[in-house]
Amino acid sequence: MPNIAFISPKGGAGKTTAALLLALGLAERGARVALIDSDPNKPLVRWGALPGRPEGISVHAAPTVQDIRDAAQEARRRDPDWVIVDTEGSVRGAMVFAAMRFDLVVTPLNGSPMDAIEAIKAAELVASFGKRAGSSLMHQCLVSRSPPALKPRSLAKVVAMLREQEIDILPTALVEKDAFRALFEIGGDLKALEAAGVSGVPAARRNIEAYVDAVVERLGCPAVAERPAYCRAG
Ligand SMILES: Nc1ncnc2c1ncn2[C@@H]1O[C@H](COP(=O)(O)OP(=O)(O)OP(=O)(O)O)[C@@H](O)[C@H]1O
Ligand SMILES: [Mg+2]
Fewer CB within 10 Å of terminal CB in the chain, N or C? Predict the structure, then answer.
């Protein structure tokens, strides 16, 4: 059961969106996913309260750091295949490392050099928590609001800055899409968006598929023996 945390000291980097898209993509493949919302603003709890939440996804609130262990226990009782933790956009978000063990930590970032600096800080935080726990934690950055067409020069600079620090970046970026924003207004999954007449859903679906593939590939296809569907292509 892979545990994945979305962390960044910078607010608005795209953590909550990336956490939800991963959950939706995995649920689409038949996985059971527990989402732990450890942001006191509770954006995922709010999404979960809207109509249409897929059956395979449960949402567990952990508004303070002290609540994370309880939320994780509650989540485990549902026997999920994946646990995904969204955190608040500050250094406090990294407190989850004290409460849970993770297989992968993802730091979303937009394509500006300022973001790269914050992502480097996140990588340092992750490395220091890993060291304290006595094992290294896998950390990946994720470009979270890539423009749909041409990649701007600033993004190339960001990638170069991260590579220089030997920080990994997931090979698939999340593209800036109205559909991803609409999920938090309409609730449910991409099928719900389609039913509500939101445009661009097929492209949004392809983007999520590629993103889920990238995460699964980085984790080395966990639980492949039980659930080979995770690892199917495209
Ligand atoms: N790929 C995307 N396409 C369109 N909008 C996006 C995308 N990613 C993020 N956004 C929008 O950007 C804003 C910030 O995203 P999000 O809430 O996911 O970031 P966050 O890191 O969780 O923020 P916080 O630190 O406040 O928790 C939101 O309005 C969200 O809808
Ligand atoms: Mg958030």
Answer: C
Task: List pocket residues of ligand 1, CB cut-off 6 Å.
Answer: 11-17, 39, 88-89, 144-145, 174, 176-177, 180-181
The parent domain of residue 91 ranges over 3-231
Tens place of pLDDT for every residue, the chain, 234 residues?
A: 899 999 998 899 999 999 999 999 999 999 999 999 999 999 999 999 999 999 999 999 999 888 999 999 999 999 999 999 999 998 888 889 888 999 999 999 998 888 999 999 999 999 988 888 777 889 999 999 888 776 778 888 899 999 999 999 999 999 999 999 999 999 999 999 999 999 999 999 999 999 999 999 999 865 533 444 444 444
Cα(225) to ligand 2 centroid in Å equals: 33
To the nearest 10°, the Cα dihedral for 183, 184, 187, 193?
Answer: -20
- Threshold 0.85, pTM exceeds: yes
Residue 140 β-bridge partners: 106, 168
Per the structure, how many domains does the chain have? 1
Testing ligand 1's pocket by substitution, the residue of 8, 10, 17 carrying the most ligand atoms inside 8 A of its CB is 17
Cα 165 to averaged position of ligand 1 atoms, centre (Å)? 25
CATH of the domain at 127: 3.40.50.300
Give the atom of ligand 1 at the shortest distance from the alpha carbon of 20. 18
Q: Which pairs count as long-range contacts for 223-228, CB under 8 Å and 24+ apart, including other chains?
A: 223/1, 223/2, 223/81, 227/30, 227/31, 227/81
